[in-house]
Amino acid sequence: MIIRPALAGALALSVLAAPLAADAQQSRKVYRIGILSPGPAEPSPSLDAFSQGLRELGYVEGRDFVIEYRWAEGKLERLPELAAALVRLKMDVLVPTGGTPAILAAKHATREIPIVFPVAADPVGSGLVASLARPGGNVTGFSNQSTDLTAKRLELMKEALPGVSRVAVLWNPANPAMVRRFGDARSAAATLGLTFQSVEVQGDPGEFERAFSAVSKQRPDALLVVSDAFTILHRTRVVELAKLHRLPTMAEGRVYVDAGALMSYGQNPLDPFRRAALYVDKILKGAKPADLPVEQPTKFELVINLKTAKTLGLTIPQSLLLRADEVIQ
Hints:
Low-confidence stretches: 6-13, 20-25
Radius of gyration: 24 Å
Helix content: 40-55%
Distance between the termini: 79 Å
Mean pLDDT: 89
Order of helices and strands: HEHEHEHEEHEHEHEHHEHEHEHHE
Shape: elongated
């Protein structure tokens, strides 16, 4: 068979191109992202939102990135060892979820691997970053801190329950980020003329029964839950006990309302995880966490569980229902 010169050249180029294409595929960087969670290994809409955010930026899981998960299964004391395990695996980025305990564990485990947190209550006060504008170090992310949110929650509670005068506040004093949030609640209650009852829970899930027993003796009109990893992990139990003691509950996030709490006011829980994907993308492309400012939420949603209101024998004012972003029937 006679091979024409042009065809021979094309064949030679194709032979050369084949290994080049193979080399290009082999040299593609597959980024390793470590997820550190205080919760159980179960489906998570928040983590799904993070992965979807990466896909929307053009990343393909398995081709461009893989995710290593480490779950503390509710045992927060395990977070440091799990963070250390991810560091040993040489992740390109760490994404600690569930709040301050996981972020601190990641920060203590490494000063080199970039860390992007989707949610932190008080990143400056907790020592996670030097400032919101210039975080410094290897940590940045998104804060759900807003100085007037606690007052707004109590105002909405008063509007929903016009006769409220005594409010119990459930919080975890073992979490340093919650101290400021608790202080905001105390100040806001005083401004609104509400009697304030502090109810502390920390570490042991069995404390919730004791806490609600103490709450019932003071006969408060409503409950405000200050959220952190511990209270979120046990939100179902918190809501069950609140219903048992017939306490209308205002929470910081809609996960409580989905579990049966009366109301919540806060940012959409999926938004910071989608936005965290943007920061991960910037870091993988060369940006430094120290130069990426910690962002704060600008949009908040009011969610009301009308089914719970009916169970408690409450009538929520129509004016408030019309302003709600979502009403669960």
